[in-house]
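Backbone-to-sequence.
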Protein backbone atom coordinates (compact mmCIF):
# COMPACT_ATOMS: atom_id res chain seq x y z
CA UNK A 1 0.00 0.00 0.00
CA UNK A 2 1.35 3.39 -1.01
CA UNK A 3 0.02 6.37 0.89
CA UNK A 4 0.53 10.05 0.42
CA UNK A 5 1.13 9.88 -3.35
CA UNK A 6 -0.46 13.26 -4.03
CA UNK A 7 -2.56 11.95 -6.91
CA UNK A 8 -5.45 14.13 -5.75
CA UNK A 9 -3.46 17.40 -5.81
CA UNK A 10 -4.06 20.01 -8.48
CA UNK A 11 -1.46 22.84 -8.67
CA UNK A 12 -4.13 25.26 -9.87
CA UNK A 13 -6.09 24.80 -6.62
CA UNK A 14 -5.24 27.36 -3.93
CA UNK A 15 -4.27 26.30 -0.43
CA UNK A 16 -7.31 26.48 1.86
CA UNK A 17 -6.69 27.87 5.34
CA UNK A 18 -10.22 28.51 6.52
CA UNK A 19 -12.14 26.62 9.18
CA UNK A 20 -10.18 23.91 10.98
CA UNK A 21 -7.29 24.24 8.53
CA UNK A 22 -6.46 27.54 10.18
CA UNK A 23 -5.40 25.56 13.28
CA UNK A 24 -4.33 22.17 11.89
CA UNK A 25 -2.89 21.24 8.50
CA UNK A 26 -4.55 17.82 8.45
CA UNK A 27 -7.96 17.99 10.16
CA UNK A 28 -9.28 14.83 8.47
CA UNK A 29 -6.31 12.82 9.71
CA UNK A 30 -6.85 14.25 13.20
CA UNK A 31 -10.48 13.08 13.08
CA UNK A 32 -9.34 9.60 12.00
CA UNK A 33 -6.89 9.48 14.92
CA UNK A 34 -9.63 10.48 17.36
CA UNK A 35 -11.92 7.73 15.99
CA UNK A 36 -9.23 5.05 16.33
CA UNK A 37 -8.39 6.33 19.82
CA UNK A 38 -12.09 5.98 20.68
CA UNK A 39 -12.01 2.33 19.59
CA UNK A 40 -8.92 1.81 21.72
CA UNK A 41 -10.67 3.35 24.74
CA UNK A 42 -13.71 1.16 24.20
CA UNK A 43 -11.78 -2.12 24.21
CA UNK A 44 -8.59 -1.23 26.16
CA UNK A 45 -6.76 -4.36 25.02
CA UNK A 46 -3.32 -5.18 23.76
CA UNK A 47 -4.78 -5.79 20.30
CA UNK A 48 -6.49 -2.40 20.15
CA UNK A 49 -3.30 -0.71 21.42
CA UNK A 50 -1.36 -2.37 18.59
CA UNK A 51 -3.95 -1.25 16.05
CA UNK A 52 -3.72 2.29 17.41
CA UNK A 53 0.09 2.30 17.25
CA UNK A 54 0.19 0.92 13.70
CA UNK A 55 -2.48 3.34 12.54
CA UNK A 56 -0.63 6.32 14.03
CA UNK A 57 2.59 5.16 12.32
CA UNK A 58 0.91 4.86 8.93
CA UNK A 59 -0.83 8.20 9.37
CA UNK A 60 2.40 10.02 10.25
CA UNK A 61 4.13 8.49 7.23
CA UNK A 62 1.20 9.49 5.01
CA UNK A 63 1.39 13.07 6.30
CA UNK A 64 5.15 13.16 5.74
CA UNK A 65 4.78 11.94 2.14
CA UNK A 66 1.99 14.39 1.36
CA UNK A 67 3.85 17.34 2.83
CA UNK A 68 6.86 16.64 0.61
CA UNK A 69 4.57 16.79 -2.42
CA UNK A 70 2.70 19.86 -1.15
CA UNK A 71 5.94 21.72 -0.50
CA UNK A 72 7.17 20.93 -4.01
CA UNK A 73 3.82 21.84 -5.63
CA UNK A 74 2.93 25.00 -3.72
CA UNK A 75 5.69 27.49 -2.82
CA UNK A 76 3.43 29.15 -0.20
CA UNK A 77 2.99 25.84 1.66
CA UNK A 78 6.17 26.43 3.69
CA UNK A 79 4.67 29.58 5.20
CA UNK A 80 1.51 27.61 5.99
CA UNK A 81 3.63 24.92 7.68
CA UNK A 82 5.40 27.57 9.73
CA UNK A 83 2.13 28.99 11.02
CA UNK A 84 -0.09 25.93 11.50
CA UNK A 85 0.23 22.77 13.58
CA UNK A 86 0.45 19.45 11.79
CA UNK A 87 -2.18 17.63 13.88
CA UNK A 88 -2.61 18.99 17.41
CA UNK A 89 -2.08 22.72 18.05
CA UNK A 90 0.43 23.40 20.81
CA UNK A 91 1.25 19.75 21.51
CA UNK A 92 4.76 19.57 20.06
CA UNK A 93 5.29 22.25 17.48
CA UNK A 94 5.29 25.95 18.20
CA UNK A 95 3.87 28.04 15.38
CA UNK A 96 3.64 31.68 14.43
CA UNK A 97 0.02 32.36 13.40
CA UNK A 98 0.88 35.87 12.19
CA UNK A 99 2.46 34.37 9.06
CA UNK A 100 -0.99 33.17 7.96
CA UNK A 101 -1.81 36.70 6.88
CA UNK A 102 0.89 36.63 4.19
CA UNK A 103 -0.33 33.45 2.48
CA UNK A 104 -2.39 33.79 -0.67
CA UNK A 105 -5.28 31.40 -0.33
CA UNK A 106 -8.97 30.91 -0.91
Amino acid sequence: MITGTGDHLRPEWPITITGMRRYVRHPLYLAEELAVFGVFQQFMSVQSALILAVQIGFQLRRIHNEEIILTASFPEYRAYQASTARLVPGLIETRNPSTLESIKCS
